[in-house]
Amino acid sequence: MKFSTLLLATALFTAPGTAFADGPKIGPNGGQRADAGPYHVEVVLKGNDVVLYVTDGADKPVDVTGAKAEATVLANKQTQKVALEPAGANTLKGQANLGGAHDSVKVVTALTMPGQKPVQARFEMGHAGH
Amino acid sequence: MTTRRLLAAAVAAASLAAPVASPALAHEGHAHGDEEPKPVVTTAAPTLETSSSDFELVAVVRGKTLLVHLDRFVTNEPVNGATVEVSADGEAATASPVSGEEGVYRLDPTWLSKPGSHEVTVSITAADAADLLIGTLEIPAGAAEAQAGGAQGVSAVFGQVRNDSGLMLGAVMVFLLGVLTTVALTQRGRTRTVAGAALVGIGLLLASGAAFAHGDEDHSHGDEDKGKAAAAVPMGATGASESPRRLPDGSLYVPKPSQRLLSVRTIVAKPQEAAQTVQLIGQVIADPNGGGHVQATQSGRIEPGDKGLPYVGQRVEAGQILAYIAPAVTFVDRSGIQQQIATVEQELVIAESRLQRLRKLEGSVPQRDIEEAEANLNGLRKRRAALSPALTTKEALRAPISGVVTANNIKAGQVVEGRDQVLFEIVDPSRLMVEAVAFDPRVANSVRGATATTADGINLTLEHLGHGLALRQQAIPLLFQIDTPPQGLSVGQPVRIVAQIQGTMSGIVLPRQSVVRGPNGQPLVWEHESPQRFVARPVRTQPVDGNTVLVLAGVEPEARIVTDGAGLLNQVR
User: Fold this and answer.
1) Which of A37, B234, B443, B490 could form a disulfide with B438 if both were Cys (CB 3.0 to 4.6 A apart)?
2) Is A106 in contact with B18 (Cβ distance < 8 A)?
3) Residue in B28, B85, B132 closest to A12 by CB
4) Going by C-beta distance under 8 Å and a sequence separation of 6 or more, which residues neighbour residue A116?
5) Same domain assignment for residues B144 and B161
6) Is pLDDT at B120 greater than 60 in this prediction?
7) What is the interface pTM, i.e. ipTM, of the complex?
8) Which listed CATH number (2.60.40.2480, 2.60.40.60, 3.30.1130.10, 3.40.630.30) goes with A24-124?
9) In the predicted structure, residue B185 carries a pLDDT above the cut 80
10) Which residues in A lie closer than 8 A to residue B13 (C-beta atoms)?
11) B497, B462 in Cβ contact below 8 A?
12) Is some CB atom of chain A closer than 8 A to the CB atom of B42?
């Protein structure tokens, strides 16, 4: 048990080094995608709508019934908090006051899946390539 | 016995690894894809490190207080006067600046006392930029005590060791070994009592027990180090002081307060084109039009001028009288002159009386005789006038240019020879030049501009005036004009010249102070890899001018390279 534990520990310490791979990139819905805990989340800004798509690590849509999410949006130097409600399938939606401009808007989402701890993700709009 | 001991120690170490490993499992599993490409350096106090393209933030838990260090991402300058709002667990609070410290904000949120991981969002509004940053702050159970003492961890370790069956197994094995050894010895018939055997066995057991205790500590640390190194997350042991230190992989862990103290600043590496350069050695010389010598035209005795003799360093104006020379007239010369004067005066008396006589007879003597006598008298008077000051007139030594006296080779009353002896040297400090020698004719022909650095670090901008066509000791003399020479430059001072020649090279331009020497003498720069971590990058460089170098290899574009404080960072052990 002891040696195997040691080995396991070593393996576990080493594993995450290789796990980090995906940086911010464009998701299937045209928005920026980032990692949030075990999920991939994608944020799309449409007018004043903030839409959050949730997929799992393999980019399979995740049912978000019962999930909660909150987006903190920084636009025009103003920070606002937007509650996102499940809107069918793997999307959560909310309304923010963005003033039309989506450039240099920064969004932080906190997603709480049912029975889990909240996980955060950060997005910088207009810096897609980064 | 040594192998046994090692084995037992390893067993016990493994038993320790178990509790270390399980939280690691929980943490790493949760951290899947957490958008953090950089390793997190764990410290004694729970720490949150996060950064964006504008800001770099380090939040450290101190008891019930969260200290937020906020810096510019690019320059590592502390950000003052920003509004920092920290929210976690649905609780948002604005941090207040810590007075007397730059870019440090504090707040006392209630969630800080709750163990577990907290998802933290920090909203920053500075004068010129606003940003949202996220991060996870892990508050370990009993964090308060751990911070207070740090001894809690050690006692827990001992408790675990005592309760662990691995240790007992090892102890029993060593005890058996001892008994076996004793039995073997007894069978040779050299010992007599079974009590002796028991004693040896017990002694061995005690000894091995002590060995365990010691071995446990070492190995547990070893395990920790191994685990962290494997994840490229070296960390200090619990309770380690918050001081800069070199990590096992050679990188540096420098906490934010230390960075502030060392005033560490960075720039972002950008590839650029820079002119090719060569290094030359030269020295400062005086401009021929901006330097003067004062020499005597005849031998004589020095007499101070109206303001005394000029001293070295005195500023003099063009035409100012520096000294007089009373001509040295030898005894023979003097008597010769006096003789001449006497002769002239004698003739003068005769000529005067003759003229008077002729004037009385005017009309009866030819006018020509009178005019002749007048001319004779005038000539004699002029001769007398010319002769008389020869013994008393002094020669004034005047400053040929305005400048500063740089050499004074005489004292009052000194007798100087004419010509060769330089009495005063005057240099105009606003007109200095640099003379260098180049051994490569191609360099001499292609020099465009240059900068020079003196031994004490003064940088000079040079303008290339030209080069000599005659070789001087196999080298070509090059002449440069110094643009607005700074104070304190002296003639003859050696300078190192970086001359730009034709052709360009591409690389990353960094200030000279960024490049420091590694322990093996290799030039290296420090990259600011994550908020509190610096990594040495060996580089190949070429000077651009006195202040900057061109890094040809070793630095990736967009890396943040330490400029100020690199030398101090380099000394962290």
Assistant:
1) B443
2) no
3) B28
4) A37
5) no
6) yes
7) 0.72
8) 2.60.40.2480
9) no
10) 6
11) yes
12) no
